[in-house]
Q: What sequence folds into this?
């Protein structure tokens, strides 16, 4: 077996990375989890999680992340708070280059760097995130039963989610910067057929208003410049997501627009390298499937390391 600092390196401390770390530490692997911030990933920015099994009353994102981290620590998972700048995953010994010049080596790597939603970048968005501003209709839709809400976007995801949100909201207003949608025609037809969905065309959001919760949106017509206000209790910003891949060697990994392709065992195109969670190329990004992928990747890595012996 080649010499390395660790058997397994896990990059990213969200639900996928923490689960992978829990399984690896419990299996008594020589493992380290690398996370530049507080473990938990995007869950830390989620006000309330209502659809993760085991918590019938729901749980705050902060508390859920804290419990995941504490469970991993119970098995003595080593966590390094550091920033990964780059890596070389091509050889049998994987190299992770940290800020400050330090290099860590490992025989196997699990990439769990996650993704982040594209934001509007308007006043009120940051302050009201989790208080009426959401980036996931599947996660937060049930909180808006009987309320009027808005969806920003015109692609497949935005329009599919707008249709989904009609199960809960009394009215869904889709705000799109163009005069026609980019979504597939069959998805458009479903939205146009819904009595609960209305459209505001050629418009962008200029601000999100409210004190402790969303109360409305400021809009600007892209053709006339006219400014108007829209009263809503929630806004779903669905204008795409970006993979956290700045530190990944994409020239070495099979990827789909920067999201890493894997097989059902979470193996990437490189031997000894797995990916789990939102960094993976897939359709559904939820805490539950990130956790499952982290477990699968960790067990697959353990079996790989066992075969090296």
A:
């Amino acid at each position: 077996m080649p010499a390395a600092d660790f058997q397994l390196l896990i990059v990213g401390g969200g639900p996928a990375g923490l689960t992978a770390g829990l399984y690896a530490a419990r299996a008594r692997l020589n493992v380290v989890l690398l996370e530049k911030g507080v473990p938990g990933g995007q869950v830390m920015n989620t006000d309330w999680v209502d659809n993760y099994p085991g918590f019938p009353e729901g749980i705050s994102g902060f508390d859920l992340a804290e419990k995941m981290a504490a469970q991993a620590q119970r098995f003595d998972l080593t966590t390094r708070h550091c920033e990964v700048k780059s890596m070389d995953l091509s050889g049998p010994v994987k190299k992770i280059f940290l800020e400050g010049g330090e290099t860590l080596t490992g025989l196997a790597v699990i990439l769990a760097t996650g993704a982040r939603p594209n934001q509007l970048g308007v006043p009120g968005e940051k302050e009201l995130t989790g208080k009426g501003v959401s980036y996931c209709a599947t996660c937060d839709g049930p909180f808006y039963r009987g309320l009027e809400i808005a969806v920003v976007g015109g692609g497949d995801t935005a329009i599919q989610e707008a249709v989904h949100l009609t199960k809960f909201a009394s009215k869904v207003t889709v705000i799109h910067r163009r005069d026609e949608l980019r979504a597939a025609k069959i998805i458009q037809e479903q939205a146009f057929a819904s009595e609960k969905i209305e459209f505001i065309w050629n418009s962008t959001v200029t601000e999100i208003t409210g004190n402790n919760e969303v109360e409305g949106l400021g809009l600007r017509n892209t053709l006339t410049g006219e400014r108007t206000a829209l009263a809503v209790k929630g806004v779903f910003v669905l204008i795409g997501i970006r993979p956290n891949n700045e530190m990944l060697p994409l020239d070495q990994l099979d990827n789909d627009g920067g999201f890493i392709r894997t097989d059902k065992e979470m193996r990437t195109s490189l031997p000894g390298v797995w990916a789990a969670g939102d960094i993976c190329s897939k359709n559904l990004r939820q805490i539950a499937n990130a956790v499952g992928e982290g477990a699968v990747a960790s067990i697959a890595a353990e079996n790989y390391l066992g075969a090296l012996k």
